[in-house]
Amino acid sequence: MTTDTPRTLAEELRTRSDSGLVGLLRARPDLLSPVPGDVTQLATRAGTRASVVRAVERLDRFALQTAEALAVAPDPCPYDTLGALMGGDAGDEAVAAALPRAVAELRGQALVWGPDDRLRLVRTARELLAPGAARPSPTGLGPTVAEAAAGMSPGRLQEILAAAGLPTTHDPVSAVAALTALFRDRERMAALLDTAPAESVAVLDKLLWGPPYGAVTDRPAPHLQWLLDRGLLLPAGARNVVLPREAALHLRGGRAHRSPEPVPPALAPTTERDPQLVDNAAASQAFTALATVEELLKEWDLGGPPVLRAGGMSVRDLKRTATALDTTERLAAFWLELAYAAGLIASDGEADERYAATPAAEEWRQLPDHERWAELAAGWLAATRTSGVVGTADAKGRALAALGPHLDRSPAPEVRRRALTLLATLPPGTSVPAATVLSRLRWERPLRGAGPTAGGVGGATAGGAAGPTTSGGAGTTADGGAEAESAGADDLRSRLAQWALEEAELLGVTGRGALATHGRTLIGAEGTKAVAGPEARRGTAAGTGTETGTWPESGTWTQAGAETAPLAAGAASGGGAASGGGVASGAEIRAAATRAAALLAPLLPEPLDHVLLQADLTAVAPGPLQRPLAEALDVLADIESKGGATVYRFTPASVRRALDAGRSAAELQDFLSSHSRTPVPQPLAYLIDDVARKHGRLRIGAAAAYVRCDDDALLSEILADRRAAGLRLRRLAPTVLAAQTAPEQLLDGLRAMGYAPAAESAAGDVLIARADSYRTPPRTAPAPVPDGPPSPDGTLLEAAVRAIRAGDLAATAERKPVHAPAPAPGTLPRTTSAETLATMQAAVLTNSALWIGYVNADGAASQRVIAPVRVEGGFVTAYDHTADEVRTYPLHRITGVAELADDVV
């Protein structure tokens, strides 16, 4: 070992280039909050539990398996030993080809340090991944012989050596070493197991891949006693035993994992379609999405449902909304959350709080269709609120309500973008099953968002001659593969990905399961090349062992081929190859949505200016209508059915609604004639004239209420009608009736009796019944809840690295010898005010650098390397090497000063 070998993580980080530190900070942005003062602080922060847990969660499956193998390997571990643990005694070409990438990723994220002959897993990561009695290792391995035999008596150790055919020793340490050497020796261990009873071998097979713990009775069966006598099972408590790690590795053929997964699952099988068909299907669904959101806004035009005391909508209101939108409650929750994310609906904030459309909804409705889609797509792509959890229980067992609190899931934007990015790696028009995408995402982040697993020790039980039987729980199997497929299907990340694929189809980002052209633009994958085949997708050339990716000095693994563009397009979350598809900024998302909408615009149907009137009192709109025409028809007729064509039905009530809105019969006839490609049918003309003739003959005003009519016979008819008894009418004059009900109730009552009354003002003029839309005060869309610290930009990273380098220089710079006692490492220098001033003035004359201790106005102490330029008025102006700029410091805040060695700066 040379003298250049780093002894600590800080020393290795100190040897990295600036681009290497930039790569570390980009992969682990939490290390920047706040910016470390020097490399030692950076290394300390990189080893904290919270930061290490976050970094481990962002590893792909093979990198995680590599870290798990290092956790059970000797410390330090040579690269060849690690390769043997990952590939086994027989070796594995795919593992050997992918292992350099995994080690480089771990080293780039400061989870592993040291040269290849002395690889070290950081202490916190080893504590997280190493096996323990209360925390089984994902590898399924147990403690070493030395750890399991720590509390065993020396006499018992000598008995085990004798039973195993080993010479006795004089102390426990050498006894443990001899037993360990036996278990590691393939030939001697094979000879020992050849003498084992078949039942004993069966017990070892059950404990082989974990959990390695079991329980025995006070009188073990003979085949169990045989294992106990030879140390193949060691005590792990009063009635528990464990299979030692070295023995398990021999039985496994040297493998730490049952199924190493060096390459990601291929995106297969694929289904190829005409890209134009995919784009058309996506455009059709995009138009349906616009129509659904517009229908929701129309439903809430006069105000929506009340807000629950705890926030959100009630189940009854959600069902009512689903009925109005002609969809399921689950999809209704999605449309509600989509409109909420786009800032189109919100609560009004009044005392009797309720939901309603926002002023932005009016502006949105006036936009062209493709621009309206861009607003929805941008809001959806960045939203952390997740409609899929509506109806599930929160931590307190309460059901989560639509539009309510606690719906934010921070990983949602990253998972949503990554799922679409995987689809972008396929040729245009090509789709894969959703299960394939979920499998790939689970490989990329096996721990991210995973639900809790059974953390208890499964172990085995044994009694009498029955022998042990294993009973393991989910999450305690030997490798990170099989249990992830079974227990990981319902983890949060998988559910988010499943919802993302479904929502992308509903929103028109994908069509028939394939990413549309405008969908590729939305996620910034316009230039993505298709993957040629499964081997290219897996990132390794088949059969050659040659890596198809590179590990640049920046510390971020870049796979060659199709996925490079998507990964670079959204790399915000850090974490290496598996972290591709990070979260872009809001401005970037809106710009991409605008570009995508421009591609979508030609595919959307053009609004029509006509309908087809039919003799059965219906009108058929063969496509989307222009907004003024659609709004007028919504008043004049009722929508009977929707689909490719919309069918409107004219009824007396709908015609009366149009008359109440201030239109005359002649205006309605002219309107229909000018907007119909067919003549106005006679039945429809008769209906309009008949309703108009009756409309307004009765006038209702406020007395409390009165009914006025020039035809006194009609009033007599109303008085004689039994149905009018509840209105409590009485005649005031031959042409006037008074009522003891409100005008609105009187209007509804007479209309229910078949009359067509009209309301009038105090001046006797007919009141036009045009309800005012209800809008909330101006509201902004909900802000996404970030998943950890934001991704730093290049400027911040470069500045942070400069500050860390300068701080490191100040902390490690060699000082000139002084007669006074030198300050302890990490403490500020102490000098008197006179000494500080004299040293500063001398440094100005000699143009030399100084090391100072400084306390700012907030009381924060720091060390700095400065080159004084001027000293006057109680201040020193100097070039600060730490901040890389000229600054002015009050002399009274400088705690002390020391000269630096001549060759430091």
UniProtKB/TrEMBL annotation:
- Print the keywords alphabetically: ATP-binding, Helicase, Hydrolase, Nucleotide-binding
Hydrolase as a keyword? yes
- Annotated region (Disordered) at 448-489, 531-553
Has keyword ATP-binding?
yes
Q: Which residues form the Helicase XPB/Ssl2 N-terminal domain?
A: 611-733
User: What residue ranges carry the coiled-coil annotation?
Assistant: none
Tell me one Pfam family matched here: WYL
Q: Which GO terms label this protein's molecular function in UniProt?
A: helicase activity
What InterPro entries does this protein map onto? Answer: WYL_dom, XPB/Ssl2_N
Composition-biased stretches (Low complexity): 476-489, 539-553
Domain WYL: where? 835-897
- Which portions of the chain have biased composition (kind: Gly residues)? 452-475
How is this protein named in the record? Helicase C-terminal domain-containing protein
